Records
---
Amino acid sequence: MDDIELRAQLEKHHTASYGWALSCCSQNRTEAKDVLQTAYLKILEGRARFGGKSTFRTWLFSVIRNTAADERRRHWLRRLGLAKFAEEKEIESSLKEGKSDDEQQEVTKAFKAALKELPRRQQEVLHLVFYQDMTLEEASEAMEVSIGSARTHYERAKLNLRKYLDAQGDET
């Protein structure tokens, strides 16, 4: 199917697609719009391809459903991550009570120095996961490495950060 025909089919099924996206997103209009836009991007960028094994509409609806499921999963992972982050921050704040701003700046400075000590791939995966809010799978695609390699870089990065920061803590 060429690009012109693909766009025509998307336009033809847009209203029904939006209705389906609403259904997949528990009637949340904002989320449905985001899901539909992401699904369209997947299709137009060629990340989802129509193989002709079903009708176009069936295939399109499956892309929308899968995209909604991915977004829902990503949303829950973020919430879980934020819950974990909040818990860690609470623990940190209870440990840091009594520390001055200068001491806080020293901790931040040490963390940034530790990040710079990591190999490039480890820095990249941490940046994508923590600062760009990507999953390890997305980070592996962005880095153009296998998911196994991304996981390895991620685990090693966390381990190396711990070692470096522990060593810095022992020096002070």
Note: The two ends are 65 Å apart (CA to CA).
---
Amino acid sequence: MLSAPTRKPHGQGLRQAGFSMIEVMVAVVVLSFGLLVLAGFQLRVLSESAGASNRSIVVRLAGDIADRIRANRFPGAVADSPYVTDWSRADPTGPEPSCVGAGAHCSATQLAADDLWRWKRAAADALPGGLADIQSKATAGGLLFVHIAWDEPAVANPIAPDPEWNCPERKACIELVVAAPQP
């Protein structure tokens, strides 16, 4: 019996055993872009987290000074309040006399100076580049305007301050309005 050789169609019977170099390079490029996107996302999340933490501290500091103002019954008009202060930093030595402790006997003005010193120190210690001021406006009646400014992370969107607040340049700034006790 004679058998004729059979021919296989072209390409049949050949099996590819692995990836080509081009496929591997494409996979590495796609993986690299994915990792870069994830790294950028992680940086954004960290920046937003720091910004949220700073805003939380600001709210706590604003509430603290508001409570101090309401607790100290100053016998004069709000425009003359001893709590009105500028953006200057707290003196490192602190006010005299200290109004801390059961034995301390301070006037309303001395207590306000002590409160402001402690509050400004707390703002400087708790916030990056933390500064604070309190303003009074003749047209606002019994209201004091508390401002706290800090350095916001570069990636996050800082809170744009109102130009009337005289906020320091390139800082995020927030305002809290406090109704001061009237005599």
Note: The helical segments are 21-71, 108-126.
---
Amino acid sequence: MLLNGQEQMAKPDDMLVADAEGILSTVIHGPDYRTRITPATRRVLFVVYAPPGIGEEAVHGHLLDIQGNILLIAPGATVKELAVYVAR
């Protein structure tokens, strides 16, 4: 279910992240409604998708930028893991 509450199937060949209950996010449609960030949220996962040709260093730098922005909004936030995983 999209953030706007509309049901949507993932497109063929789209990259996505899922858990046991369903899709969390796809490149084409973005994040889902079930796991959206709310004022009660205490744990989050930020995912960056990168197509072939975008190096690991660029992706890592982008994750650091995201971390910096989060700390502007929530100075007490902590990072449990900041990692780049490459599909092989």
Note: The chain has a mean pLDDT of 92.
